[in-house]
Write a structure and sequence with these properties.
By secondary structure, the protein is an alpha+beta fold. It has two domains: 163 residues, tt1808, chain A; 92 residues. The protein is 46% helix and 16% strand. It has four helices and twelve strands, in the order αβββββαβαββββββα.
Length: 310
């Protein structure tokens, strides 16, 4: 759970009676960064942290915003390059007034240079320490004076203690739960769970564009696969209909063959009956002929017998 220090009365805050409204300027009239490298590093880190905390409520990420820390004194301000505050709404602000927000940043980043060296390592560090900023980081993108070029401090018992860098020069921010790693002239924030650097808004847009292109390609492929499956299904249906028709024709042929066999069997049976009848007739005729021959022989015997009597 992200926790942030609560300031009921920020250090160095002087309250005074005001007869008129005090104006706190929104710009100090100075450029955002010393060089294009410093500007790129600032905006890269700011965008990456904003993207990282986009869905985390009550975490505010600011970049190049005037930070007023003494009520009633517009001259007392700093302009941190990037800072993160926990426990306040994440809506954008024109300026940051510590006595109104009642929250000191949990981490401040300065993209430092030889020109801002004395302030970054001197007055700013001392002030942030007094205001209870838990972590303070200095990044020298051009390695003009810092060795190593990324250095960090953590507040221990009210005093800043230096963080020990890893072999690759990276630092672990416990307040942000991120690894901070120099990469070229940029300071990358890395998700320790995945080892992947957080994308800036530009990189996130590129990822979205790539993801959409992949999704469109997948949709086209899926559509093609659907069409092919439908065609296969239609071909299978036609083949099934053809097979069913062939089966019906085969069944009809089998029925016709069975009928022919039954007719042939009936014909054979009729032929057998006719043959039996013919055989019976032949036997009767043979028997009649035999009796006739026997009668004639008997008549002849009787005729001879009569002749002998005469």
């Amino acid at each position: 759970m992200i926790k942030a220090p609560v300031l009921t009365q920020p250090p160095m805050v002087k309250r005074q009676e005001r007869l008129t409204e005090i104006y706190y300027p929104e710009s100090d009239g100075k450029p955002v960064g010393e060089t294009g490298f410093h500007i790129a590093a600032l905006f890269h880190l700011w965008q990456a942290l904003r993207f990282h905390y986009r869905n985390t409520p009550n975490v505010y990420v600011a970049g190049d915003l005037l930070f007023y820390y003494e009520e009633g004194n517009p001259a007392q301000f700093k302009v941190p390059d990037v800072f993160v505050v926990k426990g306040i709404p994440k809506h954008d602000r024109r300026i940051y007034q510590l006595w109104k927000e009642k929250r000191s940043p949990c981490a401040i980043f300065e993209i430092t240079s030889r020109g801002t060296r004395s302030e970054d390592v001197g007055s700013k560090r001392t002030l942030y320490e007094m205001l209870g900023v838990q972590e303070y980081y200095l990044f020298d993108p051009l390695e003009e004076y810092l060795r190593p070029r990324l250095q960090g401090y953590v507040l221990v018992a009210g005093i800043y203690q230096p963080l020990k860098p890893s072999n690759d020069g990276s630092l672990l921010s416990r307040e942000l739960d991120l690894v901070l790693r120099p990469e070229g002239t940029l300071l990358r924030a890395v998700d320790p769970a995945t080892g992947e650097p957080l994308p800036t808004l530009d990189e996130a847009v590129d990822q979205i564009v790539d993801a959409r292109a992949i999704a469109r390609a997948e949709m086209r492929r899926a559509h093609f696969e659907t069409l092919r499956a439908e065609a296969e299904a239609q071909r299978a249906a036609v083949a099934a209909q053809r097979a069913e028709a062939e089966a019906q024709r085969a069944e009809a042929e089998a029925q016709r063959a069975e009928a022919e066999a039954q007719r042939a069997e009936a014909e054979a049976q009729r032929a057998a009956v006719e043959a039996q009848r013919a055989e019976a007739e032949a036997q009767r005729a043979e028997a009649a002929e035999t009796r006739s021959a026997q009668l004639e022989a008997e008549i002849e015997r009787l005729r001879r017998l009569v002749g002998e009597l005469d």
